[in-house]
Amino acid sequence: MSIHIIELYPETLSLNGDVGNRTALAHRARLAGLDVIESSYRVADDVPGDDVDIILIGSGTSSAVHQIAPDLDRIASWLRERVADGAVLVAAGAGFSLMTRSVRYATDDTITGVGVFAADTDASAPRIITEGFAVETALGLVVGTENHTTVVTRDAGQDPFGSVRYGTGNGDGTEGAVVANAIGTHCHGPLLPMNPAVTDDLLRRVAERAGLIYETTAAHRDLDEVTRQTRAILLSKSGITDTWS
Amino acid sequence: MTKPGAAFVLPVLAGRAARFATRLRGGGSAFPGLVAQKMNRDFVGDVTEKLPYGSIVILGSNGKSTTTNIITGIVRAHGLRVFSNPSGANMPQGIASAVLADVSLTGKLDADIAILEVDEAYGVEICRQLRPQSAVILNLLVDQIYRFGEPDKVAQMFRDIAGEVSEYIALNRDDNFLGHLGTELEAEGRLDVEYFGVTDEVQASAPHGQVSARDFSGKEQVTGRAARAEVVGVDRNIATIAFGGVEHRIVMPSRGIHYAVDIAAALSVAANALGDRFSIETAVEAVQSTKTVYGRGEILTVGDVEIEILMLKNLASLQLNLDYLDRTPDSVLFAYDESSKDPSWLYAADFSKIGHVDVISGPKGPFVALRLAYEGKDFGTIIPDVTEAVQAMLDRPRPASGRHTFFLDYDQMLITRKYLGYKDLEAGSA
User: Which residues form a coiled coil (chain B) (predicted)?
Assistant: First the structure.
């Protein structure tokens, strides 16, 4: 029994080292003794099968988003079904925008999103860059960097990923969105190497769903010691003390 | 102007006074230029327009300092006097300060040509003042995302800068964005557009190509364009470059496809600027006797060991320097600092050429450590202060190869060279 991770559009939506999310999940799962299969989905590939545990989509330029948008339409229902079925989805940056219902670049330029999250994205806002982006979430303090031009408007029933401690996030004091085992966020660093509490939580959900057990080891704790130092560097830019233990 | 020179005396004197004052304080190099420019806004352009061979600007995400240095070497070898900015002093006041240091009170530079590297974000402002005849654009890489947002923005900057150039531009044929810029400029017909490049075979043999940013505009890439200088082979630090159809074997100051492309660019733009005076033999000889720019593949000798300094300014510089390591380095230091606001790009780098790292340093060193740890590689020890880290490397037993390999971010490179006794520091981009 293996955990299957699929990364969508790895060459196109990869502006900010987004492959790091895959690296973190695969490495931590393997350290816990789990088998991992990694694959990629590119424009015009066959629609992937249903046996996917983790789906990743990353950040990119507006031109990259426009290029893949017609193809994303082909796999939109597959994506919605996987999320409804309990698969993990981590969507960062432009990937997050595309998982909302719509992404508006200009009055006459709106892209239809996948609609995993009940929210709409205005991608024509002035650029926001927060080096020490900090978000309070159900899994503790999430730390990274945000760099985007979006305002995300959630429906009343759509839960955010967390509330912003430092930075801008969605634009209303909240950050990102969550539904089932899907997370959408502006956070890179990337998100998962910088925030092992999130990574481990996702891997526990995946393992449970597959009838496996995910338990961290001393090797995980060695990684976390270094992670702590990277988080402290970014948080020092924002005058925040890390509460992750 | 009724009295030539009068427009210069006061700005030059004021700038010099500022220069003297900042030197006393040990301050930066940009302020004096600011003072001179405040007094005469056209100061730089008025000085450089008197140069018989005009001015050339060098642009691109990576390789500006190296290429500026090579072009300068080629042009000097042809007997011309060159005015250039110190490596890294590529913003408006830095350039004005460099002019100030060399100009006479009446606004004359003792030079035949100006060869200047220019920061892309300030390129339009600088070129409006400088009014250059020629430009060369080396590459458009994913660089400083926190500063520029997206590569497409940099493409627009290059387009705007090209609009301020009056005669000639040399472009990297194989760069995704620059190929399109060439198409646009050719259609416009105002500039003489020329290309340099590498053969498909050379491109394919590079583990990660030239790490150019991708252009998702959907525009067709033009293929089969002729290149005045074309890299037909790269083997470690030996490049074979076809110039005007004749192949030349060139021993480069450092290794890799990126150096070979910089040389091809330099040959193209120098040949254009020198016209009938240009000799490819003289140029090749000049390239081979050019030293590396500080910290770009530079080899320092300390006691009985060598230290090779490679840059890790962004994904492209790190990846290309990794790809062209001539062996798995046996003694490695990484020092990473604040020049990268967002270290996410480290995860896009392929570290397979590195077996292990001995010491990690710099204010953001732990990000490199975490990246290596997620690759399952031993990252050694973290010593935050780079001078202590460098000393720790030197205190270790001599590596079997006789060489330490240092991957250094820009500021860490400056501190390291100074610590090792190399005091001829560059001006910095401040």
Answer: none
